[in-house]
Amino acid sequence: MQPSFLRGDSNGDGQVDIADPIATLCFLFLGTTTITCQDSADANDSGTLDLSDAVTTLGCLFLGSPPTLPSPYPARGPDPTPDELGCDSY
């Protein structure tokens, strides 16, 4: 059974807000955050976790570009695209 998650919800609190790209950046550059569901942090659904995911979340939240994140968003669900990322627990 595939885990259910919300795309863009890097910190796992059930919503996508400014705290999520901050959590992604802290994970990538400072190592001070643990992301238990890396699929959720993969905001652009590229199959990798990198700077572009934080930028995508910020763009969606504050610029409307993209106007929405890839599925599963705005509701939780399974990942529709296979990749190497996963969810340890969520």
Characterization of this structure:
By secondary structure, the protein is mainly α. It has one domain: Type 1 dockerin domain, CATH 1.10.1330.10. It contains three helices and no strands. The protein has helices spanning 19-30, 38-41, 51-62. Helix 1 (19-30) packs antiparallel against helix 3. The longest helix is centred in the first third of the chain and has 12 residues, at 19-30. The mean pLDDT is 93.
Keywords:
31% helix; Type 1 dockerin domain; 90 residues; globular; mainly alpha
Strand content: under 5%
- CATH topology annotation: Type 1 dockerin domain
Number of domains: 1
Order of helices and strands: HHH
Overall pLDDT metric: 93
How many E-type strands?
0
Question: At CATH's second level, what is the architecture?
Answer: Orthogonal Bundle
| Distance N to C terminus | 13 Å
User: Which structural category do the helix and sheet elements fall into?
Assistant: mainly alpha
Summarize the structure.
Helices cover 31% and strands 0% of the residues. The protein contains three helices and no strands.
SSE blueprint and pairings:
Blueprint: H1 19-30, H2 38-41, H3 51-62
